[in-house]
Amino acid sequence: MTTYYEEREAAAVAERERALFARLPDALERARRRAPAIARQLEGIDVHGIRDRDTLATIPVIRKSELLQAQLDARSAQAGAAAHERVFGGFSAIGWGEAARVFASPGPIYEPESHRPDYWGFARALHAAGFRRADLVHNCFSYHFTPAGSMMETAAHALGCSVFPGGVGQTEQQLQAMSDLRPVGYVGTPSFLRIILEKADESGVRLDSLKRALFSGEAFPPSLREWFLQRGIDGYQAYGTADLGMIAFETEAREGLVVNEDILLEIVRPGTNQPVPEGEVGEVVVTTLNPDYPLVRFGTGDLSAILPGESPCGRRNLRIRGWLGRGDQTTKVRGLFVHPGQVAQVVARHAEVRRARLVVAGAVGRDTMTLRVEADPASESLAQQVAQTVREITKLRAEVECVPPGSLPNDGKVIDDVRDYG
């Protein structure tokens, strides 16, 4: 791959910074006019004085938990308000009609999608992974509730690809469709493609049409990349969120992830507004120039670090090391976030359960969840009931293990991620 999705990916660092900060004041002014929550965040700020990263750091960070709370408060207090304020907590500049779709992430947090092509910005990542016009893409991200399926479909359409909307689950039907349609590319989690390929091996079905893949939603270590390469599939990864769309993507250099164009990415010390020195691990904070959902200094809760220097692939934007975990105890299992608050919801539904600790284990692509609960009295029936509650709340399966009262560690940890990322 010798060409870029856009030639500006090779623009010099100083040139890109000047261009982004030249656009930023007008973008902030527009956001302040159309998104009430952003207006509150920018109160007292001279947006036309935001000309570099030092002045950008004077704007307070808004974190995902605050976005969720703002939406919850608005939905309960503003029954007659316009959709962009009542549903989105004042963070969206668009409402019904201007929004083509609305999605829900755990919380629930609602996110708008406008009619703009490649709204989520993943076309650049698909291009870097080798996807081209007239490719057939088998999309195994969910098309329901969360925006992942639409993120990849709109990106593929922007490249001129055709898409099979496979969605999640139904391994045998996915295998049948792949065998019949012979797609050249796959988008989805690496764990699900591995399941499909292992099913193909068991069934004696050849899936030799698949040549490339773009993965997201899970870790994609070198060992798993090699596993796919041995089957003729060149896999790449992209990092994004349901709020911001695509944040950074892998290139043929295989050295970190290159930051997307049209966003300003900072790494800040968790819980503060202050950027950390280059190379230090901190929280990913993004300011997007998206005019429809104009998030400003939005704290993702994800941890990463800036890589020094430029990518050998020739793209000259900032690079990050990739996803390095969460600044809180929230973790991602099989492509879905699991929050400490969800564990608390499970406990609240069962009077017999006093405390609980969710242990996420296994190797990459083979995640397991075990909820250990202190229960009195404990029983197999209770364990089954709790397991059903876990699935209702998190949309994921978990084993439930009843343990004696007082036996869980008293360390404040609700979610313990002990997965092997080797």
Automatic annotation (TrEMBL):
<dbReference type="InterPro" id="IPR000873">
    <property type="entry name" value="AMP-dep_synth/lig_dom"/>
</dbReference>
<protein>
    <submittedName>
        <fullName>AMP-binding protein</fullName>
    </submittedName>
</protein>
<feature type="domain" description="AMP-dependent synthetase/ligase">
    <location>
        <begin position="132"/>
        <end position="287"/>
    </location>
</feature>
<dbReference type="Pfam" id="PF00501">
    <property type="entry name" value="AMP-binding"/>
</dbReference>
<dbReference type="InterPro" id="IPR028154">
    <property type="entry name" value="AMP-dep_Lig_C"/>
</dbReference>
<dbReference type="InterPro" id="IPR042099">
    <property type="entry name" value="ANL_N_sf"/>
</dbReference>
<dbReference type="Pfam" id="PF14535">
    <property type="entry name" value="AMP-binding_C_2"/>
</dbReference>
<dbReference type="InterPro" id="IPR045851">
    <property type="entry name" value="AMP-bd_C_sf"/>
</dbReference>
<feature type="domain" description="AMP-dependent ligase C-terminal">
    <location>
        <begin position="335"/>
        <end position="413"/>
    </location>
</feature>
